[in-house]
């Protein structure tokens, strides 16, 4: 494990991606910054973080040799590592919101962005970006349903120790992945999946609302939703949102 600390950077994922093009990086190289000025989230969304208050970091993984058909298990391993660490801190109503947001109730605590390098139908390298709201207390009014560890625990959380805990647990989960214990990852993920088996509202790409029940995750990582007529349908990340 190699740790690179930066005072400020536009995006830790972008920094690692550029660094990997010109340098041979060792597995589990970590870049963490006190101030990320242009953080990125899923679907080209931005990740806004107050300087010196939160954890914004990326992890470089190499030689994964993970078949592209099994990429959802990498997502499971990363999500579960964050979930496990926060669970040990007694965060209330903790869950993983598909595909990989960590939430307390309906409020977002952590976002994850995984960018893979694929060769011959196999994921060789991956850059995992993690943004975790830790000690920030106030958020922009444009951000809905967002919270932090401090808002939930009513005390500051030490950032360096939290980073170490997450990286340690990430290594544990990646070991399970490397041992191809896919069913274990699947079971553990579904066990803590937000609103699974509960009726709730969703929104499609036409901004139409519909009622459905999350029934699981498909082989390709899409969410499986049972509709009102009792049929089941798969949706990709760009095809559906939680209402």
From TrEMBL:
- Tell me the organism: Polaribacter gangjinensis
Q: What is this protein called?
A: Biotin--[acetyl-CoA-carboxylase] ligase
* Domain (BPL/LPL catalytic) ranges: 1-178
User: Which molecular function GO terms apply here?
Assistant: biotin--[biotin carboxyl-carrier protein] ligase activity
Q: Could you tell me which Gene3D superfamilies the record lists for this protein?
A: Bira Bifunctional Protein, Domain 2
Q: Name one Pfam family in it.
A: BPL_LplA_LipB
Gene Ontology CC terms: cytoplasm
Record's SUPFAM superfamilies?
A: Class II aaRS and biotin synthetases
Q: Does the keyword Ligase apply?
A: yes
UniProt KW keywords: Ligase
PANTHER family (alphabetical): BIOTIN PROTEIN LIGASE, BIOTIN--PROTEIN LIGASE
């Amino acid at each position: 494990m190699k740790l690179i600390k930066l005072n400020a950077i536009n995006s830790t994922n972008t920094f690692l991606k550029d660094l990997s093009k010109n340098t041979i990086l060792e597995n589990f190289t970590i870049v963490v910054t006190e101030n990320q000025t242009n953080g990125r989230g899923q679907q080209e969304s931005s990740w806004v973080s107050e300087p010196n208050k939160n954890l914004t970091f990326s992890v470089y993984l190499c030689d994964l040799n993970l078949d592209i058909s099994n990429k959802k298990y990498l997502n499971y391993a990363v999500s579960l590592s964050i979930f496990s660490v926060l669970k040990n801190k007694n965060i209330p109503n903790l869950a993983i919101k598909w595909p990989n947001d960590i939430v307390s109730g309906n409020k977002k605590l952590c976002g994850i962005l995984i960018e893979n390098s694929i060769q011959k139908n196999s994921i060789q390298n991956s850059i995992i970006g993690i943004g975790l709201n830790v000690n920030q207390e106030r958020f922009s009014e444009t951000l809905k349903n967002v919270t932090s560890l401090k808002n939930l625990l009513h005390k500051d959380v030490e950032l360096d120790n939290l980073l170490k805990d997450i990286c340690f647990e990430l290594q544990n989960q990646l070991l399970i992945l490397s041992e191809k214990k896919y069913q274990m990852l699947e079971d553990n993920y579904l066990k803590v999946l937000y609103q699974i088996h509960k009726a709730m509202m969703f929104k499609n790409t036409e901004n139409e609302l519909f009622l459905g029940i999350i029934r699981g995750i498909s082989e390709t990582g899409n969410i499986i939703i049972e509709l009102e007529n009792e049929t089941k349908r798969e949706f990709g990340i760009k095809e559906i949102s939680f209402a």
